[in-house]
């Protein structure tokens, strides 16, 4: 079967199907996790705000999915408190929000720490960075977040699919697809090298995210649902709170919509917005930037107000929201408040054409998406092996313990020290799992492998060699933005003229390093000009 789209939906579909014995190919016309899936809040949450619209069933399912991810990925998906400030612009009083937080905790099967309610004075004591001048109080509830970036989490499912036997190819687009004698004849094009390819598939999984409707239209698949776009932006700025306690700060903006200050190591991510747009291609506008900075400046005690010059990186993407087609009965989304549309997903099956389409969804619910797609594929007559839940998750605890034992014996964590960075052993295990054993061997053979290539970035030479061999990097941006998050957390001025950048390109691409680095720098210049 052919999976089209290498975002979170396509990645989990390929991992689940390949893990259950199917012959799978996954293609994406860009990089894996390179569009919507690289622009998220990095949060794994049950959707507390959806309780406002009484979507109890959705919240119940998302909370259980969150708990499942925390259990399966204990080093990557961590519980984190959300401290929500309720000022005059908030639609709820603290006592009522506290009841909602208690209900949220219960819907999540008490899988996180219990919520709390704060008065204005106690909230100020708990987090001095919050401006409580107009505050009525606050609440604390718990969800989870990704320690690394979202697209790297997506890539973990791509690796799982690959290791289970799937063919996974980025920068390969579908140019045509025709149903002939019960099978799909698919034309493909390698957009990086220009090669034309052919593929035959029994079934297709349309996991193209914001582009599922366009893809279905090319082969005439009619669906009950379709996608509309909500634009969201985030700004990455220097850390706004202390490193003593990682927590997400939540506020209601002037339009009574929640926005957040999310920790990302030495940085904070602030956002998001919720704007209806008609085009999946978006960017951060001056208006977006000024709105988010203004909201934060009004609600936090900062040494000085944030300005555009403080922004290290920007994220802009669309949420593919699911609505019913106007021709379908019960289409009422146009009459509803735009921001009330939730991030639920829908999966449809076209029996005649053997196409399964995934509409919407979010990272939190990814494991359910994979399992549901497999169910629909079985309904199309494709036999799959029993689901043993072995297509996702981190290695077993005993394997983890052995890695840390070996890392301790070789004094890995003392080989390099940097302020405000986690121990090397924890980072290598979280990012690479079993492959981290190979990295220990490389460091034993050559201690220089445990040194940073870029002084300004937290990335070892051994990681670059691993990325070159195992992480399917085609363009330099794949590494800088998605396999790592250097572009997100390091100011461009700190690395753009660094000799380490040249070394990194040569490690990743060998003799082609200068060309790939040149392409990357040219793209950065064009972005800067815009």
Give a concise summary.
The chain has helices at 8-19, 56-72, 94-107, 120-126, 150-163, 212-219, 286-299, 366-379, 397-409, 424-432, 435-445, 461-470, 476-483, 486-489, 499-509, 513-529; strands at residues 2-4, 25-28, 43-44, 77-87, 116-118, 135-146, 167-170, 172-180, 183-190, 196-201, 204-206, 225-238, 248-252, 258-264, 267-271, 275-277, 313-324, 345-350, 355-360. It is α+β, with helices and mostly antiparallel strands and 530 residues long.
Overview of this protein structure:
Helix content is about 35%, strand content about 25%. The longest helix is centred in the N-terminal third of the chain and has 17 residues, at about 55-70. The chain contains 16 helices and 19 strands. A hairpin with a 4-residue loop joins strand 18 (about 345-350) and strand 19. The mean pLDDT is about 90. The protein has helices at about 10-20, 55-70, 95-105, 120-125, 150-165, 210-220, 285-300, 365-380, 395-410, 425-430, 435-445, 460-470, 475-485, 485-490, 500-510, 515-530; strands at about 1-5, 25-30, 45, 75-85, 115-120, 135-145, 165-170, 170-180, 185-190, 195-200, 205, 225-240, 250, 260-265, 265-270, 275, 315-325, 345-350, 355-360. The protein folds into 3 domains: about 1-35 and about 150-225 and about 330-380, 3-Layer(bba) Sandwich (FAD/NAD(P)-binding domain); about 55-145 and about 230-320, D-Amino Acid Oxidase, Chain A, domain 2 (2-Layer Sandwich); about 395-530. Strands 3, 4, 5, 6, 12, 13, 14, 15, 16 and 17 form a 10-stranded mixed β-sheet that branches. A 6-stranded mixed β-sheet has the order 7-2-1-11-19-18, with helices on both faces. Helix 1 (about 10-20) runs parallel beside helix 5 (about 150-165), helix 1 crosses helix 8 and helix 15 (about 500-510) packs across helix 16. It is an alpha+beta fold.
């Amino acid at each position: 079967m052919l999976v089209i789209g290498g975002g979170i939906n396509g990645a989990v579909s390929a991992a689940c199907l390949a893990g259950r014995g199917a012959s799978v190919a996954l293609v994406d016309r860009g990089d894996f996790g390179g569009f919507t899936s690289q622009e998220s809040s990095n949060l794994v949450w049950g959707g507390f705000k959806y309780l406002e619209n009484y979507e109890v069933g959705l919240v119940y399912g998302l909370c259980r999915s969150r708990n499942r991810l925390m259990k399966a990925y204990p080093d990557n998906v961590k519980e984190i408190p959300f401290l929500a400030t309720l000022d005059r612009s908030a639609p709820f009083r603290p006592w009522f929000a506290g009841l909602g937080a208690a209900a949220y905790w219960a819907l999540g099967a008490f899988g996180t720490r219990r919520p709390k309610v704060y008065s204005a004075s106690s909230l100020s004591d708990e987090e001095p960075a919050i401006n409580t001048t107009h505050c009525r109080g606050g609440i604390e509830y718990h969800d989870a977040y990704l320690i690394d970036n979202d697209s790297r989490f997506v890539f973990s499912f791509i690796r799982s699919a690959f290791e289970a036997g799937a063919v996974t190819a980025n920068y390969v687009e579908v140019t045509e697809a025709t149903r002939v004698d019960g099978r799909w004849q698919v034309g493909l094009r390698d957009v990086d090298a220009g090669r034309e390819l052919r593929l035959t598939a029994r079934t297709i999984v349309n996991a193209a995210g914001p582009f599922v409707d366009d893809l279905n239209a090319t082969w005439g698949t009619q669906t009950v649902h379709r996608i509309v776009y909500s634009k969201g932006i985030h700004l990455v700025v220097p850390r706004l709170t202390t490193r003593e306690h990682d927590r997400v700060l939540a506020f209601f903006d002037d339009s009574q919509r929640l926005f957040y200050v999310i920790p990302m190591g030495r940085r904070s991510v602030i956002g998001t917005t919720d704007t209806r747009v008609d085009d999946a291609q978006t960017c951060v506008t001056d208006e977006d930037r000024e709105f988010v900075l203004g909201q934060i400046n009004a609600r936090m005690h900062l040494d000085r107000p944030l300005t555009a010059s403080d922004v290290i990186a920007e994220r802009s993407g669309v949420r593919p929201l699911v609505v019913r087609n106007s021709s379908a009965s019960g289409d009422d989304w146009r009459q509803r408040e735009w921001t009330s549309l939730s991030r639920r997903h829908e999966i449809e099956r076209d029996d005649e054409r053997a196409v399964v389409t995934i509409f919407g969804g979010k990272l939190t619910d990814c494991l359910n998406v994979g399992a549901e797609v497999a169910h629909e594929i079985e309904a199309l007559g494709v036999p799959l092996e029993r689901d043993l839940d072995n297509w996702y998750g981190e290695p077993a605890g005993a394997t983890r313990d052995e890695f840390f034992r070996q890392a301790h014996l070789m004094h890995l964590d003392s080989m390099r020290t940097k302020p405000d960075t986690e121990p090397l052993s924890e980072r290598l295990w979280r990012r690479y799992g079993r492959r981290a054993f190979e990295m220990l061997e490389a460091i034993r053979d050559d201690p220089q492998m445990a040194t940073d290539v870029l002084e300004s970035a937290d990335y070892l030479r051994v990681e670059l060699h691993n990325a070159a061999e195992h992480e399917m990097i085609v363009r330099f941006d794949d590494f800088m933005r998605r396999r790592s998050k250097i572009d997100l957390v390091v100011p461009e001025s700190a690395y753009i003229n660094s000799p380490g950048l040249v070394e990194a390109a040569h490690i990743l691409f060998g003799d082609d390093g200068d060309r790939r680095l040149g392409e990357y720098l040219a793209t950065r210049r064009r972005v800067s000009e815009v």
